[in-house]
Here is the input.
Amino acid sequence: MHGSAMSGWLLMALCATTGAYCLLRTRGETGEGRRTARAEALMGFGMAAMAVPAAVVTPPAWAWAVYAALFGAASLRALWFSRRSGHHLHHLVGSSAMVYMALTMAPGGGAAAHCGHLGHGVAAAGGVPVLTGLLLAYYAVYVLRSGARLIPVASAPVPAGGGPAGGSWTTRPEMALACRLTMGMAMFAMLLAL
Here is the structure.
């Protein structure tokens, strides 16, 4: 990816924070909500790992195969659970996009740049332009749609007690939407720099 190391650090911090919050959400959720929070935590931490600037850590060549295998398994899991919930289709797209980026950024995979490692590589842009364009379009629409859904939830009146309506801060619906919006923007940025 092209850009400064500062952008890589900011993207890494944003994704790691989002992954940590999603992991905390698993404690307050049950069933489908817990599965969704786990999948989102995996995505956040995976994106954070891919965003570590190359000046700090250059991943070994085998790391890309690990990313591809991990997110390939996550894609199969999302496909399985998409029978119950349409939101898992989004997880399927996200996990598949992570596999795509890992394969594209692997040595000999089309570019010398490292996905998320801003400032890496001097090779031409990697990946299949049409597929990258489709993923960019998907995430652009997803981010706009998530942002529009967040506005009414975030502007809802606060209950008389002043606390969250649904319990602790880890179960607030606007926080989950904000995390999804954040990860969508981060994925868009990673794909854009691919």
Summary: The chain has six helices and no strands. The chain has one domain: 5-192.
